[in-house]
Amino acid sequence: xxxxxxxxxxxxxxxxxxxxxxxxxxxxxxxxxxxxxxxxxxxxxxxxxxxxxxxxxxxxxxxxxxxxxxxxxxxxxxxxxxxxxxxxxxxxxxxxxxxxxxxxxxxxxxxxxxxxxxxxxxxxxxxxxxxxxxxxxxxxxxxxxxxxxxxxxxxxxxxxxxxxxxxxxxxxxxxxxxxxxxxxxxxxxxxxxxxxxxxxxxxxxxxxxxxxxxxxxxxxxxxxxxxxxxxxxxxxxxxxxxxxxxxxxxxxxxxxxxxxxxxxxxxxxxxxxxxxxxxxxxxxxxxxxx
Length: 290
Known about the structure:
By secondary structure, this protein is α+β, with helices and mostly antiparallel strands. The chain folds into 2 domains: 3-63, no CATH class; 76-284, no CATH class. The protein contains 8 helices and 11 strands. Strands 1, 2, 3, 4, 5, 6, 7, 8 and 9 form a 9-stranded mixed β-sheet that branches. It has a two-stranded antiparallel ribbon with strand order 10-11. Helix 7 packs across helix 8 (257-266). The longest helix has 19 residues, at 165-183. The model is unreliable at 1-22, 41-52 and 59-73 (pLDDT under 50).
């Protein structure tokens, strides 16, 4: 897992209200790396063995005349559009947890705070849509996605709180699933379920959920929020994660997503994580409860 920060180090803020260009960031990286390597790695939080890997990748970039920024400098313009999109349809942004350095796809977490209409936190990824997913034929329009998860207003959200896995596991799940299609050359779409490991295990000792279900987000204007056009050839789609029990994962595999959604709707499941939610597919004496 890459290092996460709610505030960016020195010249690395490429987000909102910042006009740094790709060339400017490249220049900063080159100047900082060349003048004082030790301070440079201290700034970005790279230590030990990772430093050697970082040097090798940086030198490779230099050989290629900086055609790409090391570890991928994400598009500030795309970030701005996604940030504004979340703010428009979800609510005011309370903060952003930046992933300063990552061994793979860097994933930031945009946090929209509770509002009178949406009295819960909404955490939305940024970074997953920087790369296209490997979609089946006929699903090319769904190559780009971001994920989100909704947490109760009492959920503790800060760098300090996230040191405790009781509060961090939803964020870990967001990041893991956002990287999943790129690491395994596959895709994610509505109705897909992903288990937490193999064999599946609960996300935390206090949590009985063992996987996630992708669903359409509950917002006032679903079509407008679901589809964000970044360019003529790139539309980003947003899916929310619903934590589910092992029995629900098994039920989905056997009966399909429509049947599982029907069971979840029957017990009133919504987007907000509820650790005490009823198991919609709980068995008693070998029979499903309905």
